[in-house]
Amino acid sequence: MGSSSGWSMWFSGCISLERSWNKDENILKSGFRELNDFHQPFWLALFVEGTRFTHTKLLAAQEYAVSVGKPIPRNVLIPRTKGFVASVSHLRSIIPAIYDITLAIPKDKPRPTLLRMLRGCSSVVHVRVERRLMQELPEDESGIAQWCRDVFVVKDALLDRHLATGTFGDQEYQDIGRPKKSLIVVICWSCFLFFSAIKFFEWCPFSWGGVVFCAVFLVLVLVLMQILIVFSKSEKSTVPKGPPPNTLKQNLLPA
User: Fold this and answer.
1) CB 114 within 8 Å of CB 229
2) Which Pfam families match (predicted)?
3) By the 8 A CB rule, do 25 and 90 touch?
4) What is the predicted pLDDT for the residue at 178?
5) Which of 152, 62, 167 is nearest to 107 (CA)?
6) Which of 2, 43, 46, 47 is nearest to 25 (CA)?
7) Which of 10, 11, 17, 130 could, after both became Cys, cross-link 45 (CB 3.0–4.6 A)?
8) What global pTM score does this model have?
9) Do residues 162 and 168 lie in contact, with contact meaning Cβ atoms separated by under 8 Å?
10) What are phi and psi of 128, to 5 degrees?
11) CA 122 – CA 111 distance, rounded (Å)
12) Rounded to whole angstroms, how far apart are CA atoms 72 and 231?
């Protein structure tokens, strides 16, 4: 979720959106008002950082933090609070709580990639979930924005601890295993694709040329998906005017 560079939100069972707050503010506020009359249970997921985390964006966030005298992030980006404030202001009467979720990948484990998923390789991801009652949040917009920024300062410290110890703290570790629902979905899709492939080869006479064509087509699709993922790592960030480079280096905390 963001201000100038855009933000994204996800309604469970409804729709996924990625919008620019400055361009679509009235449309989004209208959507929030309609959610007050929405009679089905829903989840609203907000990505408050507003963009994918990259090293270049982290440097831009650190420069901005130095220029305005804010805590310097080491593992997260500075949250963009306009969309979050609007969400809380319009939905606090119908949403009882906020779930603050922090994800981390152990440094001794391989990172999840598209290739690993296609190969069926599992990945280890540590998830910390904290339930925060909506009534505990400040009432005014500036207070809500500051609350969000404070949460990210704590989140940054938690990620520091995870890098050092491999855990988020002293909380009991719970291995949730593989959810049965996800396993059922995978089995159903696998059966569907398997029988579809059988029907396809029954309909289409077997030939090595056809097999080669299918293999090449699959490789091209995978390559295209990987290219799209790489290009989605936008490095565009608006960096405010900050102090001279030497001052910046002296003020940045060690990673």
Assistant:
1) yes
2) Acyltransf_C
3) no
4) 67
5) 167
6) 2
7) 10
8) 0.66
9) yes
10) -115, 125
11) 10
12) 27
Task: Tell me the average pLDDT across 227-251.
Answer: 51
The token pair that represents 251 in the structure block: 């003020």
What is the Cα Rg of the chain in Å? 22
pLDDT in tens, 187-200: 888 888 888 877 77
Tokens of 189: 């899709």
Single-letter amino acid, residue 35: L
Helix (H, G, I), strand (E, B) or coil at 132: strand
Task: Report DSSP letters for 146-194, one per residue.
Answer: HHHHHHHHHHHHHHHHHHHHSSSSSSPP----S-HHHHHHHHHHHHHHH
Chain segment 21-31, per-residue pLDDT in tens: 556 667 777 77
Task: Say how far residue 206 (Cα) sits from the centre of its chain.
Answer: 44
Closest CA to 48 of 152, 200, 198: 152
What is the structure's pLDDT at 50? 80
Beta-strand relationship, 126-133 and 7-11 = unpaired
Q: Cβ(235)–Cβ(57) under 8 Å?
A: yes
Tally of residues, the chain: 255
Token look-up 């949460």 returns 151
Spatial distance between the Cα atoms of 195 and 143, rounded to a whole number of angstroms: 56
Sign of CA dihedral 21, 24, 26, 30: negative
What residue type is assigned to position 155 of the chain? K
Residue 246 predicted with pLDDT over 80: no
Task: List the domain boundaries for the chain.
Answer: 7-177+203-251
